[in-house]
Design goal:
Blueprint: H1 6-23, E1 53-54, E2 59-60
Antiparallel strand pairs: 1-2
This protein binds iron/sulfur cluster (SF4).
Iron/sulfur cluster (SF4) is lined by residues 35, 37, 47, 50, 52-53, 60, 62-63, 67, 71-73, 75-76.
């Protein structure tokens, strides 16, 4: 696409933004090292109480690979209390 006018520039940028947005995942997993993952709880916090934990597969939405329900990492976010 040749950009020759202001209008074509904005059309080009809109198409480029749409293509980028539609092909980029909303989040990407990081390594265990990046998130300071450990296989043991920390200060009473552990993966089984975290909103990112997937109990069916022992996986995490943030950290790559298999994790322990008793583990912990820096991305811990406590599940909201059930009423
Ligand atoms: S974000 Fe961290 S604490 Fe939470 S489930 Fe994943 S590895 Fe465990």
């Amino acid at each position: 696409m040749k950009v020759t006018t202001r209008r074509s520039f904005f059309q080009y940028m809109a198409i480029l933004g749409l293509a980028t947005f539609s092909t980029t995942p909303l989040y990407a997993k990081g390594t265990k090292v990046k998130y300071l993952y450990q296989d043991t709880p920390k200060d009473g916090k552990q993966c089984s109480d975290c909103m990112h934990f997937i109990p069916e597969t022992n996986e995490c939405r943030m950290v790559e690979g298999s994790i322990s329900p008793d583990g912990w990492c820096a991305a811990f976010y406590k599940l909201p209390e059930k009423k």
